[in-house]
Structures are given as C-alpha cells and as structure tokens.
What we know:
With about 475 residues, the protein is of the alpha/beta class. The chain is built from 14 helices and 21 strands.
Amino acid sequence: MSAPGSGVAHDETDVDVVVIGGGPAGEVVAGRCADRGFDTALVEQELVGGECSYWGCIPSKTLLRPGDVLAAARRVPGAAAAVVGPVDVAAALARRDYMTSSWDDRGQEAWLAEHGVRLLRGVGRLAGHRRVSVDGAVVTARRAVVLATGSSAVLPPVPGLAQVRPWDNRIATVAKEVPARLLVLGGGPVGLELAQAFRRLGSAEVTVVEGGSRLLPREEPFAGDEVLAAFAREGIMVRLGALLTSVRRDGTDGPVHASLSTGAEIVADEVLVAVGRRPRTADLGLDSIGLSPGRAVEVDDRLRAVGVDGGWLYAVGDCTGLAPLTHMGKYQARIAADVITGGNLRDRASRDAVTRVTFTDPQVCAAGLTAADAEQRGLAVRVLDAAVGDVPGSYVLGEGLGGTMRLVVDQATDVLLGATVTGSGVQELLHSAAVAIAGRVPLRELVHAVPAFPTVSEVWLHALEAAGL
Length: 469
C-alpha cells in the first residue's frame, strides 16, 4: 500500500473504510471517517474533486457570473450608463480556469493527505463481500465500502447525434471559444444555465429545444414560465414540445443541421446535450454482490445499500438517484460517515427537504415539495403566493425586478412542506425556507422571524399575510 495521500495499492491489503469516487461526496465521507480515527482509502480514476469542481457547478457558475453582474448593473439607474462594451470573454475563461485550478487536483491531494486519507489512483470496482479491486489490486474493507461514483450525462439515441461530436456539460464548461450559434437540447437546469451563459458571453444565436410542454418541468410551473419570458427578452429562442429527430454536420468542423419533430430545421455550430444524467454504476461490479449494474443504488435512511447483507455497503451522492446535487451528496456523506463511525444520524432531507437552485437570471430556488409533489403523495395543502418584486428591497436593487415566492403548507399540521422563490439573485433566501422545512416549523411560528428592512426577504411577510397571519 502506498503512503497516505497518493499512490496505488500493489498488494492485497486491509483498511477500515474504502470510498469509491473522489468527488465532493466521496471526499466528505472519507475525510470524516479518517478524522475519527478510521483507516480510510479513497479510490479515484480521474480528478479528486469530481464533476462539480471541474466540469459542473464551479465552472458553470463562474461562466454565468460576468453576465449576471452586467445585467444587475443595467437595472440600476446611474449604473446602467457605465456598462459599455461586451463581456471580456478571455478574462471570463481565464477566471474559469483559475476556479478549476486549471484541472489540476494537487490541492485536493494535499487535503486528503492532511486528513490521513489514502488516495488510490485507478478504477475501483466491487469484487465481492467487502472487497474492492483497484486496477487489479484488491483492498478489503474491515468496516465499510462507500459508493460515491456520481453520474454521467445521457446521450439520447438520435440518428447522427454521436457522429456530430456533441457537447455535454464537460465539454461546454472547458470550452476555449464561444460558438456563434449554439443548440441546447434539454430545458432543465444544466441546459438553461449554459444557454444563458453562452448567450451573455457572446453567442449570437442560442436555441433551447425541450420535449416537454414547459421549462424546468420538475419545478413549479410559474418558474419555467418566468425563465421563458426572460430568455425571450434576451433573444434566446426556446422550442417547447419538440424533439430532435436527426442531426448531421457538414464536413469535420462545419455547421450542424438539426431536424425537429415539429418539422423545423436548426443550423448551429455546436450542439449541447443536457437531457439528463444517469448514475455511474454500470461498471462498478454490483453484480458481484447481487445488485443490478447501471441502476441507482437504493439506500435506507442510514445510506446503507438495500439488499446487501451485513450492512457494510453504503452509497452517497448521485449514484443513489435520490437527489443528484452536490450539496445533497455532501449531506448524505455526513450521515454515512456518522453511521459508519458509530453514530446514529438519519437522512431526513433527501426525500422531503431537497434544496435546489437553477442559476439562471431569474434564478429558480426551491426547497422541499412542489404543490404537484404534495398532491402525488396524497397530502392536502394550501398554496400561498407573493410577488418578490413588490417588496421595497427589490426596488432598491433596481428596476424591473420580478419574481414569485410560493409556499406549500400542509393543511393538517400548518407546517411548511415546500417553498419556491424566483427572481434575480434570490438564492440566499432559500436557506431560511430549508430551515423551516427541515425544522418542521408551523407557519404561525414564522411570524416571529422578522426580516430586516429593506431586504428582499420581506417577501416572507407578504406570503404569511396571504395565509391570514
């Protein structure tokens, strides 16, 4: 076994805990187990830090930031006149490179070493009960194996799509140039964020194609409607109820010609596919312990894999299929590490209190259940709406700020089940909703949580007034 911090296992060896996958969730569970005195090994075949750090959350939000700042300034009389010229694309891409450490994970290696975690470079696969193969060498876990392998982008089986070398989130977030014409497949968070990012970075034509009837189909309907209206104002074309039927590229680097189910034809320079993700479990050796490869790993509220005797196998993050978001994976990692090391925490958030933000402008921020989610669960709820743009704090921030807050309240208990907030830069309002949902706070008690004046958070008062409080 190599020394803590880096290396590859050459001989069969034993440790207390083996974590397969070095993304944010894997890092958290490995670091916490090691901090509590357990001999812990982390297996990673790519970069420690994972999808979020290098190809997802960090680079995409960094690419969005210049356009967000300029848009915010243009809404403020007195500042708008100072906004001249386009985004400095070279500087924006350089900032993206800095934020990703230029795709170098030595800093993360050092973090693991500081916590005493052994880093095993290679492909990790289950090889039976408590056994993990790392490029052929076997590591046996005395206490637990944790799967934290994340997810990968789905490529739909459209004729010609694979041959045109489409972008996925990884290719888009490492792009060195801004395409003049970009076609985006998928109206979910990834597709919408990158569509707006590239439009504001200088793409002359951006078209979003969504097979469903609205954008952001998993959120409240008004959220997708507000983003749709904003995209129209920015010149981003959206085609709803349309599917890609075939695609071809002229020559090696020529334009892409896309045919839609509606009969429309779109010409673009690049195609970004953002139609969903699947758990990365197909080549994980799940069949060696009686589980089905390629599927999400079902877990209980201790993050232990269901259907595996002995309670030694855990899964956290995207590979569970529960809540494929970085912060939720890290939350699950904290639960799993506590259980592995003898604690008694339980997962209460991954099914009922998931927080999520789509970082478009307007942002779509949500926690817990939508009204439709509650209805599907057979819950009787009341829905309270308030206009974010009607509070003085919004007027202070600039002109034309809109948005909506919706609270979903359990009629039987008067407890908040879900909240959605849309608007420009409203992501920091979300945690107050998450606290109320996770804490199961009755609505009447929220009256005593007094928002400062003049802040956008005063929208909470408007929502409570809609409840008669």
